[in-house]
């Protein structure tokens, strides 16, 4: 009798495993889905912030350009050698150079943010399908999908959280070239 009881409980335990795995997979999938939604919200906020900053910097660039042209015209400066001796002109030219570099950085960050959002949208669609599948059948094997999702989330998380602006790593247009263009 004791042997039959142990066998019975072992059988019940083994029959329960797929259901437990399904519940675990469903729970984990829903948690991943919530993480994806949260990351998408962060990426959207980042995109809005970048766009607003780009607009402000474009306005600054126009302002600096106007000031540079005004100083060149008012002082009759026609060469970069003359410009180097005019402190107000060089201050504006240097600021113009910096804002131009920041705009390049921001545009690149915006592209990365857009790519991350596209990848996340694809993951969101797949997770929605996974959740539907888990709700409709008993045994769904999502282990490989969950591994891939972890890799993608690890790849995208830094993009959603960080925006590092470092004008030292972005090539700047030489001041003389900017002067000649303006």
> Whole-number average pLDDT?
79
Residues in β-strands, percent: under 5%
What is the CA-atom radius of gyration, in angstroms? 29 Å
What's the main sheet like? none
Provide the succession of SSEs: HHHHH
- Taking pLDDT < 50 over at least 5 consecutive residues as the criterion, the unreliable ranges are 1-20
Number of strands: 0
Number of helices: 5
What general outline do the C-alpha atoms trace?
Answer: rod-shaped
Q: State the helical fraction.
A: over 70%
Q: What class, by secondary structure content?
A: mainly alpha
Q: How far is it from the N-terminal to the C-terminal residue, by CA?
A: 97 Å
How would you describe this structure to a colleague?
With about 180 residues, this protein is mainly α. About 85% of the residues lie in helices and about 0% in strands. It has helices at about 1-75, 80-85, 85-135, 145-160, 175-180. α1 runs parallel beside α4. The termini are far apart. Mean pLDDT is about 80; it is low at about 1-20.
List the helices and strands and how they pair.
Layout: H1 2-75, H2 80-83, H3 87-136, H4 143-161, H5 175-181
Helix pairs in contact: 1-3, 1-4, 3-4
Keywords:
182 residues, mainly alpha
Quick take:
This protein is mainly α.
């Amino acid at each position: 009798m004791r042997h039959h009881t142990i066998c019975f409980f072992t059988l019940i335990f083994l029959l329960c495993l797929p259901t437990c795995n399904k519940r675990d997979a469903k729970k984990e999938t829903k948690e991943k889905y919530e993480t994806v939604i949260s990351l998408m919200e962060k990426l959207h906020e980042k995109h809005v912030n970048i766009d607003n900053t780009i607009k402000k910097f474009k306005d600054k660039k126009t302002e600096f350009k106007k000031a540079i042209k005004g100083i060149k015209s008012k002082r009759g400066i026609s060469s970069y050698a003359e410009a180097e001796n005019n402190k107000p002109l060089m201050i504006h030219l240097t600021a113009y150079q910096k804002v131009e570099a920041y705009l390049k950085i921001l545009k690149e960050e915006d592209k990365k943010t857009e790519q991350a959002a596209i990848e996340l949208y694809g993951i969101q669609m797949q997770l929605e399908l996974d959740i539907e599948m888990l709700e409709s059948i008993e045994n769904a094997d999502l282990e490989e999908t969950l591994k891939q999702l972890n890799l993608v989330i690890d790849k995208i998380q830094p993009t959603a959280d960080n925006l590092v602006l470092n004008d030292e790593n972005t090539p700047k247009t030489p001041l003389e070239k900017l002067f000649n263009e303006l």
